[in-house]
């Protein structure tokens, strides 16, 4: 069964970014539960930002799950990238992602690699950057498997990366890996920019897709842009997707309205 999720950011440096809730974990769990969400996706500064046991306590008290944990603070706070030409910085980037896998894994929550994939340029060619990214995922994917969760890799739009921008490119990249524990994140906002046909791209992605960011064309809540979600919903049913659809959206016009609009759209399309 498809499940709903919503984002909370604890990273002050990302203030203004596309996360629905910003007032702490307890507030996010309380509001998400009241609206009928299944889970929370957590964007944290690092694994030590939340007191030991606090996330588990909120999960137990609310009955909600943790859908995934973001790693973007590694880039936003520390400037770390898995494709940095400096090997010591790549090692630090791997260590940060590994720590976030260790943070989310015990709760059944996979880590997402988005902005930490970096970019190519300067002395690093496109192919060299892809080689460096693959090198990291070959290590981090099996580490995630120790928790029986995948590692989630997110193609981004052209304004955020120049590495892998479409689902098809993502599938091609995953096929070169020896690990089979890396899945794609299909973000409907990025796809609105890069894909000629979002539904067709989802069908092409098939079982390589392990997570969905459920958001409209303008990165506002579903229903506040021009995306036609019916063909997308049909494509997800066709590929047998049974993971989370998570609102990684701007809190516009405010967090509560964005959360309400998203769950209304989710229930209309998938329940």
UniProtKB/TrEMBL annotation:
Under the heading InterPro entries, the entry gives: Sugar_Epim/Isomerase, Xyl_isomerase-like_sf, Xyl_isomerase-like_TIM-brl
Report what the protein is called. Answer: Sugar phosphate isomerase/epimerase
In this chain the Xylose isomerase-like TIM barrel domain maps to: 29-265
What UniProt keywords apply to this chain's record, in alphabetical order? Answer: Isomerase
Q: Which residues form a coiled coil?
A: none
One GO MF term attached to the UniProt entry: isomerase activity
Name the species this protein comes from.
Aporhodopirellula rubra
């Amino acid at each position: 069964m498809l499940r709903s999720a919503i984002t909370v950011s604890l990273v002050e440096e990302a203030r203004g970014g596309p996360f629905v809730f910003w007032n702490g974990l307890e507030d996010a769990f309380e509001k998400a539960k009241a609206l009928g969400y299944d889970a929370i996706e957590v964007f944290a500064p690092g694994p030590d930002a939340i007191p030991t046991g606090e996330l588990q306590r909120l999960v137990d008290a609310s009955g909600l799950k943790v859908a995934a944990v973001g790693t973007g603070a590694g880039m936003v706070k520390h400037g770390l990238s898995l494709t940095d030409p400096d090997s010591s910085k790549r090692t630090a980037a791997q260590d940060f992602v590994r720590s976030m896998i260790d943070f989310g894994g015990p709760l059944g929550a996979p880590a997402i690699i988005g902005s930490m994939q970096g970019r190519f340029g300067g002395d690093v060619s496109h192919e060299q950057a892809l080689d460096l990214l693959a090198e990291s995922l070959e290590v981090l994917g099996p580490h995630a498997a120790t928790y029986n969760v995948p590692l989630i890799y997110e193609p981004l739009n052209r304004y955020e990366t120049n590495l892998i921008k479409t689902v098809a490119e993502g599938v091609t990249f995953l096929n070169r890996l020896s690990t089979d524990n890396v899945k794609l994140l299909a973000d409907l906002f990025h796809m609105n920019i890069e894909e000629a046909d979002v539904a067709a791209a989802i069908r092409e992605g098939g079982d390589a897709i392990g997570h969905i960011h459920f958001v409209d064309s303008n990165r506002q809540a579903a229903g506040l842009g021009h995306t036609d979600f019916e063909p997308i919903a049909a494509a997800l049913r066709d590929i047998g997707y049974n993971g989370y659809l998570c609102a990684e959206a701007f809190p516009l016009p405010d967090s509560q309205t964005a959360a309400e609009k998203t769950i209304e759209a989710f229930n209309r399309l998938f329940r």
